[in-house]
Write a structure and sequence with these properties.
3 domains; two-stranded antiparallel sheet; single chain; Rossmann fold; about 475 residues; 4-stranded parallel sheet
Amino acid sequence: MKSFFKSPDKKKKYILICGDIFVLCLGLLAGFFINFMKSGGVSTFIEALPNLTLLPIILALVNISLLFLSVASLLSTIYAVTAYVVGAFDIDIVFNKKQNVINIALAVALSMLINFAVINVIFDQFFDKYIWLFFVLFTFSGVVSWRKIFYNNFIISDPYNILIIDPDKLAKKASLLLTNGKHNIFHIAEIAEEEFFAKYLFFDNKDGWRKYNLIVFPFLTNLSNDHMISLVKTKFWGVSTCSSLTFYIHSTGSIPVFDIGPNKLIDLSVTLALSNPLQRRIKRVGDILFSLCGFVITFPVMIIVAGLIKATSSGPVLFRQERLGLHEKPFMVYKFRTMKVNAEKDTGPVWAKKGDPRVTPIGGFLRKSRLDELPQFYNVFKGEMSFVGPRPIRHFFADKLSRDFPFYFLRFYIKPGLTGWAQVSGDYGDTIEGQLQKLQYELFYLQEYTLFLDAVIILKTIKKVVWAKGQ
């Protein structure tokens, strides 16, 4: 969510990605040329050139360009997704040279294996194995060299300066999060209201406040009309200005339910994308496609998981339980069983937690890898769930949390999901505080929904699955 601030950290990541893709395309271009020379295409083209008119030459060049762009787009997409999943685009990795090289090698190796399979199926032996080997080595050495250039020229940049007027608790919480990074690029200063307006605005001291990238004013305190007008001026003078609520929302990726009233939620919900019928249809089509593809791809894995569950514990392979869906409509959710049979016989309904003694030996791995959720592709296909959304909750806990938290009912205005913003952003909700944090993430997803956000959540989920960082 730090992208809201257009921070140097985010800009550097874009430069890093673009540089990697440029190196990959350069290697592909070299591979194209070598392949063209090896097949005798260059000499044939040169010999035929005097007999060709301008139109055939243009058409030939257009066809070659389109082929190159098609292959480059496919290769770049697969590489970018793979590199993101293995953590090769994490800025912090740049500071660790050994880990940087390992992550690059992993990203190049995995992406090239996938690309080799996909490209050869689509284009039928596009390159021979020696050219593919050259392409892999060129990409790896090129990306490593590019990362060295990146480190020397881009990693050190001006910090993102934030000035907070009379910081309230929302601003303080957000500030703590932003300045908690290992390689912090956010510099935050605090100033009293009267001092700020006397020092910077009323005397038109533009040089004083223009050094800040963002000015935050308190949401929970009413500023005078003159002071609010002065802040309006800053927006027209080119300095970003926002309330501490907006600052908090986009720093944490969550909405503080105890710090806002219904009137503010109405404002936040004016342009809900998920209230648009077209958006809902697009999401539904995506759910059907994802669930079908997911089921086909993971079917062999599901067979193995079912065998492991049967071999390591007594009881059924699948676990069925009633959960609440859209508009609190009950439905049966399916999972691979990760707990002992009758796990709640003595305790009654309780939240799962880290190190839960009820979890079977194989169940712990299934939870961390999220493989226990695979049968829910069936729920997604039926339309009871979406691929992305709040996790489905039991009626018992929904009743309890509805009494404890304001606006809890809002999470039932969207379908529950296989994965969600709360699952990729927070920890296990095994306490009241944890459930509150999950709700705040879920309300943020409800407000900020876009197809791009869904794509980000899916990528983050894949990353958690690959590194077994589930709960």
